[in-house]
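Check the record.
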Amino acid sequence: MKITTPHGTLEGESIEAILAKYGFDCLRGANLRGFDLPRADLTRANLTDANLYRADLTGAILTGANLRGFDLTRADLTRAN
């Protein structure tokens, strides 16, 4: 998986692996448009100004995540915590 951020491209096997490798602030301003992230554990992730337009967050765990200013237009948050 590759994620484009204002600070460069992040790579990892999963969103959780990227958070573990780069830290909870690595997704700040990230372009996650259309990403398929069902059941992703985004606990404490900083998603400030991230683009999640049409992202699939079905069943995602968002406990303690910073969601300030990010775009959830048409995102699927079914059963998200």
About this structure: The mean pLDDT is 88. The radius of gyration is 11 Å.
